[in-house]
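Aim 2 progress update. The chain analyzed this quarter is reproduced below.
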Amino acid sequence: MEEFEVWVEKYRPRTLDEVVGQDEIVQRLKGYVRQKNIPHLLFSGPPGTGKTATAIALTRDLFSDVWRDNFIELNASDERGIDVVRSKIKEFARTAPIGGVPFKIIFLDEADALTADAQAALRRTMEMFSKSCRFILSCNYLSRIIEPIQSRCAIFKFRPIAREAMRKKLLEICEKEKVKITEDGLETLIQISGGDFRKAINALQGAAASGEVVDAEVIYQITATARPEEIGKLIEVALSGKFMEARSMLEKLMVHYGMSGEDVVNQLFREIVSMKIDEKLKVLLVDKLGEIDFRLTEGANEKIQLEAYLAFLASLK
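Predicted structure tokens:
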């Protein structure tokens, strides 16, 4: 293993052919590359599904060696104001492209973090410089992008990475990095990542650095995730009316795995949904858990809120 190297960057796709798990999108984009022309693009989808990697791979395929001279990447989370749209983007869009392609590319990551005013200014900028510049916008939530921008873009919706595609790529990385991973470790890694490839690779690198063999237990420790059966047991004990025992189990889980309140809520939700219990009871448990989640996001004490949820489960007895 190469010291201090971040695997996410090391294994970032260099061309569209290397993009994993988004075959339909890749085929459509290859058509644009063959024509040497693209419209404004809008990539939407969950984190870690390849939006940024695909934008850079598309640019590399279009411009080859001079892609850096014709590409600029801005992150709207850092630069949220209207001034960025009016200065950086306009300054770059006014300069002529280099190479055989008659336009440059501006990639605006996390565009849904832009204010409404900034998006309105961006819409006008896209109109003014459409001949010399193409925009690629990426976002997690398409609904947060104003309609005038959506109507000016070809929209590509990225899906969570499929299990088989992720499995194949993770095994390839393990082989190249000489990492020994067990079958249960690999399955756990895929399950915990939830289709987020970046999360999977980061967890794999962290687990590989902690020991010679990567197994399920190491993955759970690295990702601060409890085993599903332990969460299931916690719910069962609480529902049986044993509040103090459930409270003790919760404390052990949070200390052992280093879980935050949000982590516990997310795992409780996944476990409740998959449990074989009465449908009406399931609705009641999820509804109450949603209330706890809201309180946590508003800054409430996580220990008190989680114990209050266990008390609610125990009271159902």
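The longest helix spans residues 279-297. The mean pLDDT is 89. These observations will guide the mutagenesis experiments scheduled for the next reporting period.
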